[in-house]
Specification:
The complex is a heterodimer of chains A (113) and B (114). With 113 residues, chain A is an all-beta fold. Chain A has strands at 4-7, 10-14, 19-25, 32-37, 43-49, 55-58, 61-65, 71-76, 85-92, 101-103, 107-112. Chain B is 0% helix and 48% strand. In chain B, strand 4 and strand 5 (43-51) form a beta hairpin. Chain B is globular. Classes of the chains: A mainly beta (113), B mainly beta (114). The interface between A and B is medium-sized, with 28 and 32 residues.
Chain lengths: 113, 114
């Protein structure tokens, strides 16, 4: 089965700093999804990457999928307290897009004002 | 904005009780899922459904059961709750035709079994 490893497990940054979260897969990724979760709540979809080398941005968040499609990074520029939460990467196991995602353990991000 | 709802949001019950966690979506999605999330944040798929009268067990074995009698409704039941069932349960749905592959999540049901 596909396994996803995220690093770091937790991250504390000062407001305004840039940061990167990594997600490494044990197998080739057919689709890589980034979600954000606030404590005790559901997950909110951020971005989806499918093609090797693909990069997507939304506001101050940029996600990339490497050429070999086994690693993705999520980069936040000029972090704000609103960015705090748990970031999870999810992988599509090769079935119809969006089905049966496997998730990493998540990265807990704290942004200090 | 996603229209998927879970009830109850929080539930504290005693061992041996039967409980049902409700999940409803108004988007007409054919695929629905139940994930169990441990305190350490990792999510595990425990059940999924690709349509009415279709249910499958997920990657993590669970003593819970599910049913899919209507497209919009995907309840999860525990016949006899135990402390080991204490966890957060997240329901999600997706549309087969979506190009983004996005899962829409409910806000979760946090279950505590005493």
């Amino acid at each position: 089965s596909q396994e996803l490893e995220q690093s770091p497990q937790s991250l504390i940054v000062q407001e305004g700093k840039n940061l990167t979260i990594n997600c490494t897969s044990s197998k080739t990724l057919y689709g890589l999804y980034w979600y954000k979760q606030k404590y005790g709540e559901g997950l909110i979809f951020l971005m989806m990457l499918q093609k090797g080398g693909e990069e997507k941005s939304h506001e101050k968040i940029t996600a990339k999928l490497d050429e070999k499609k086994q690693q993705s990074s999520l980069h936040i520029t000029a972090s704000q307290p609103s960015h705090a939460g748990i970031y999870l990467c999810g992988a599509d196991g090769g079935e119809t897009s969006g089905s049966r995602l496997t998730f990493g353990e998540g990265t807990q991000l704290t942004v200090n004002p | 904005e996603a229209d998927i709802y879970q009830t109850p949001r929080y539930l504290v019950i005693g061992t041996g009780k039967k409980i049902t966690l409700e999940c409803s979506q108004t988007m007409g999605h054919d695929k629905m899922y139940w994930y169990q999330q441990d305190p350490g944040m990792e999510l595990h798929l425990i059940h999924y459904s690709y349509g009415v009268n279709s249910t499958e067990k997920g990657d993590l074995s669970s003593e819970s059961t599910v049913s899919r009698i209507r497209t919009e409704h995907f309840p999860l039941t525990l016949e006899s709750a135990r402390p080991s069932h204490t966890s957060q349960y997240l329901c999600a749905s997706s549309d087969t035709g979506t190009t983004t592959g996005e899962l829409f999540f409910g806000e979760g049901s946090r279950l505590t079994v005493l």
